[in-house]
């Protein structure tokens, strides 16, 4: 514990000086900076190579604290926060002038998230400013679920990675737009749609992955690529190439595979939570395997299966524009 405290103490120092620190959350690791310091926020875009039109989520230790930099927070937002915060949900809320346009890419709303990871909770409680933090990966790549993933891609660009172990949820937060009268899900994620609907006692609209002009500006198709084409099933076993190494991302029992197939199991016991934890590890695994392509099949479209399918569809989308 003493060592962890030292790391949190160092993180506090860097963040107060306007430096970037990678932080653990239960969804994925974030690349954090003082949300009230424009230079620090600008540095996030630079280090991630992220286009300035893509707004950042602001992290706080409680929704109560976010009252300071937002306008009215609706009753349903409070209800969802009570049920799920801290946890894998982000609320889109009208901002006030304390949040700069740089953070929100000019939008009049801001994404607010209360992460559940104890180290980051401790960090947020110790700071007197919230943390702007996108996922800690270069723009367009797979989100990191371990400190090592961050080290591999951004290690030489930031002074500290706070290691909180592997992410327990494994896919990014569910984004819920509560800024208008009609609540909408902008990104399927670590909190299942069904849980939100149950709490609000009604059906909620969610944006389909195929949307060509996503409401969450960073939800472009063609993200999450494993570094080679990903072909989303059903897999035609007799048509598979037999001479080149190809990847197979599978869910459930291990299939009988050919010699040239490099398999990665998401969850042999068919658990969606376990599959979510392993998804980004799997996509990264193939990037290091020199396979020419990866075959995958969609998971059941329920619970976290929806968020996993959303990422698989994006991973399977060819990059057609810059
Ligand atoms: O689980 C997560 O949400 C992680 C951890 C680190 O908290 N963060 C994360 O951030 O995934 P990022 O930047 O990789 O994805 C945030 C998404 C982007 O697609 C962005 O466009 C959208 O949220 N977003 C942020 N602010 C928004 C706003 N005001 N209106 C609509 N979409 C917004
Ligand atoms: Mg991201």
Explain this structure to me?
With 322 residues, the protein is an alpha/beta fold. The protein folds into two domains: 2-206, DHBP synthase (Alpha-Beta Complex); 230-316, Rossmann fold. It contains ten helices and 14 strands. The strands form two sheets. A ten-stranded mixed sheet has the order 7-1-2-6-3-5-4-8-9-10, with helices on both faces. A four-stranded parallel sheet has the order 11-14-12-13. α1 packs across α6 and α9 (272-287) runs parallel beside α10. The longest helix is centred in the C-terminal third of the chain and has 16 residues, at 272-287. Bound molecules: threonylcarbamoyladenylate and magnesium ion. Magnesium ion is lined by residues 134-135, 143.
Descriptive keywords:
single chain, 322 residues, alpha/beta, DHBP synthase, Rossmann fold, ten-stranded mixed β-sheet, four-stranded parallel β-sheet, 10 helices, globular, binds threonylcarbamoyladenylate, binds magnesium ion
What are the low-pLDDT stretches, counting only 5+ consecutive residues below 50? none
Binned, the helix content reads 25-40%
Number of DSSP E strands: 14
**Annotated CATH architecture of the largest domain:** Alpha-Beta Complex
The computed structural class is alpha/beta
In whole angstroms, the N-to-C terminal distance is 45 Å
Write the layout of secondary structure elements.
Elements: H1 2-16, E1 21-23, E2 30-34, H2 38-48, E3 57-59, H3 63-66, H4 75-84, E4 89-94, H5 101-104, E5 109-113, H6 118-126, E6 131-132, H7 147-154, E7 160-161, E8 174-177, E9 184-187, H8 193-200, E10 205-206, E11 230-232, E12 246-250, E13 261-265, H9 272-287, E14 294-296, H10 304-316
Parallel strand pairs: 1-7, 3-5, 4-8, 9-10, 11-14, 12-13, 12-14
Antiparallel strand pairs: 1-2, 2-6, 3-6, 4-5, 8-9
Helix pairs in contact: 1-6, 9-10
The structure holds threonylcarbamoyladenylate (TXA) and magnesium ion.
């Amino acid at each position: 514990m003493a060592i962890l405290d030292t790391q949190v103490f160092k993180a506090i120092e860097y963040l107060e000086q306007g430096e970037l620190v990678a932080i653990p959350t239960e969804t994925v690791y974030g690349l954090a900076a003082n949300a009230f310091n424009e230079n620090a926020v600008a540095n996030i875009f630079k280090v991630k190579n992220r286009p300035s039109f893509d707004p950042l989520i602001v992290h706080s230790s409680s929704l109560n604290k976010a009252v300071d930099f937002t306008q009215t927070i609706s009753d349903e937002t409070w209800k969802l926060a009570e049920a799920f915060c801290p946890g894998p949900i982000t609320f889109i809320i009208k901002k006030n002038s304390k949040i700069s346009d740089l953070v929100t890419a000019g939008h009049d709303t801001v994404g607010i998230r209360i992460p559940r990871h104890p180290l980051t909770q401790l960090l947020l409680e110790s700071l007197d400013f919230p943390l702007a933090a996108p996922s800690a990966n270069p723009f367009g790549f797979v989100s990191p679920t371990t400190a090592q993933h961050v080290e591999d891609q951004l290690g030489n660009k930031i002074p500290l990675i706070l290691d909180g172990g592997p992410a327990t949820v494994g896919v990014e937060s569910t984004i819920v737009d509560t800024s208008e009268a009609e609540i909408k899900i902008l990104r399927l994620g670590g909190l299942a749609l069904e849980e939100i609907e149950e709490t609000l006692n009604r059906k909620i609209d969610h944006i389909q992955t195929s949307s060509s002009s996503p409401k969450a500006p960073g939800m472009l198709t063609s993200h999450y690529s494993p570094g080679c084409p990903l072909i989303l099933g059903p897999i035609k076993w007799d048509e598979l190439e037999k001479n080149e190494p190809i990847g197979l991302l599978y869910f459930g029992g291990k299939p009988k595979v050919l010699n040239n197939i490099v398999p990665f199991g998401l969850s042999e016991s068919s658990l969606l939570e376990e599959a979510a934890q392993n998804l980004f590890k799997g996509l990264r695994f193939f990037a290091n395997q020199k396979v020419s392509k990866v075959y995958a099949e969609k998971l059941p479209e329920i619970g976290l299966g929806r968020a996993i399918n959303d990422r698989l569809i994006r991973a399977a989308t060819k990059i057609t524009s810059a």
